[in-house]
Amino acid sequence: MPQYDFDLFTIGAGSGGVACSRRAGSHGARVAICEEDRVGGTCVLRGCVPKKLLVYGAHFRHDFEDSAGFGWSVPEPTFDWKKLQAAKDKELDRLNGVYKRLLRDSGVQLIEGRGRVVDPHTVEVAGQRYTAARILVATGSHPFLPEMPGIEYAITSDGALSLKELPRRVIIVGGGYIAVEFAGIFNALGVQVTLLIRGDTVLRGFDDDVRSFLTQEMRKKGIDIRSEVFVRDIEKRADGTRSVLSKMGDTLEAEAVLFATGRIPNTRGLGLEEVGVKLDARGAVVVDAGSRSSVESLYAVGDVTDRLNLTPVAIAEGRALAETLFHDNPLQLDHSGVPSAVFSQPPVATVGLSELQARELHGALDVYVSSFRPMKFTLGGRDERAMMKVIVERGTGRVLGFHMVGVDAPEIVQGLAVALKCGVTKQQLDSTVGIHPTAAEEFVTLRDKRPDPKEQAAEELGHEAAKK
After folding, report:
1. Are residues 448 and 379 in the same domain?
2. With contact defined as beta carbons under 8 Å apart, do 391 and 355 qualify?
3. Which of 26, 13, 6 has the alpha carbon at shortest distance from 301?
4. Which of 59, 327, 362, 436 is catalytic?
5. Active site residue 436
6. 453 pLDDT exceeds 90?
7. Domain that holds residue 131
8. Do 158 and 138 lie in a common domain?
9. So what's the pLDDT on residue 87?
């Protein structure tokens, strides 16, 4: 007679939870997973997938405009927001069904309802209690809304994905990847976009050249980016429009106000602290390298741990945990050298260290940067450029980071991530024959180093001293 109902009980059927549960089930474990919403989690239902579908839809405006330069005569196109939303929702319904089938085929029991940890081996769902040898928390995160007067009149990324009508004007508060992605989507669909950011440029935490280049390209597209702005309150007018007041006293109006100011781990009400699970200041589950919490039988993967909040990372963490616990194959995910992309317009992709991080960790660097107009736009006439950057450790020649802003950046950098993981050197890049004509070949043809700022400053000081 088994001591527990299940070998593994997973709370949350998002990317990480489903990946771990399926892998554990395939290894013969008795697995259950509970979910209070549809199966698929943030990425499939409220994040990566629907957002990318909207990005694709928005891009057609540019494609129609560019086609004239290549000899096409296209009647004035019209756009139907409701039709795009309906098509997007249909695809999400399909994916929800796919995920349910994948769980079923792996022998995982799906239990509908919100889970709460009662003790280190018990989870309660809709009044029913289930016991398990191990419990996995994979509940993800949710958008953060700051406390301020009128915040109830703002929407988050969840609301932006399901707007019934396309607004004429939108104010977006925030400069992270969610903010710049929605700014690009709405701008391309003809919406007047104002982006309010606290710093000088978007994408805090990314390489400085990436940040400044993307900010410049977004402004060229007509996005009104206002730097060093702090919002004080929001009001709803009688006609339904929103009025945003900054701490500097400026007032802006729009039909929608989107706050994209970060996300918070979903741990509230799960009973975790009551059973001894340690949470950090943001409410994330504190775990070790093997995804185990401070309670021996409880584990956590994905955004709820606030380690590296990317869907493929959650999946890899979940699979590594299942291999460790149920296949006698101890695995730990290496969180370094993980590539990421921002589906802004133009898109950003990066892997490895930023220039600032590389200087702090490795000292002397050789930095190669190139900016050019992609061939596609030479006939199309679009005023859009691409930027590529390679950061190299001077002493060893090892590449520490690849960065790109421009068309197809995520597709290109995915391959370079493999090279970085294998320890690629600048010499190996130089000896690689490029595919011509492509933008990607620029990464293997970069020859001119950018002057080192410290060395350049020292040289200038030497010249000044010599003059005296």
Report:
1. yes
2. yes
3. 13
4. 436
5. yes
6. no
7. 6-142+264-326
8. no
9. 97
